[in-house]
Amino acid sequence: MLETAPCTDSPLFELPEVVATPHLGAPTAKAQERVGTTVAKSDRSLELGTPWPFAARRRCGDCHVK
C-alpha cells in the first residue's frame, strides 16, 4: 500500500525487479471471487510467459494500459 494513491513518481518504478500492483478491495463474496480469478489469470500468464491480462505499463508518470 502506498500512502498516496495513485503514486506516479516513485523511484521504485525504475527498478527491474519491482512489480507494482494496485490495491484490490473486495468487500463482497462476488468481488472476492473476481479478485481470485484475476490473480489466478495473472499467475497463469506469468507461468506461460505471456503478457499479463491486467497489466498497466507505467512510464514517467503516465499510465498505459494494454
Automatic annotation (TrEMBL):
<protein>
    <submittedName>
        <fullName>Phosphoglycerate dehydrogenase</fullName>
    </submittedName>
</protein>
<dbReference type="InterPro" id="IPR036291">
    <property type="entry name" value="NAD(P)-bd_dom_sf"/>
</dbReference>
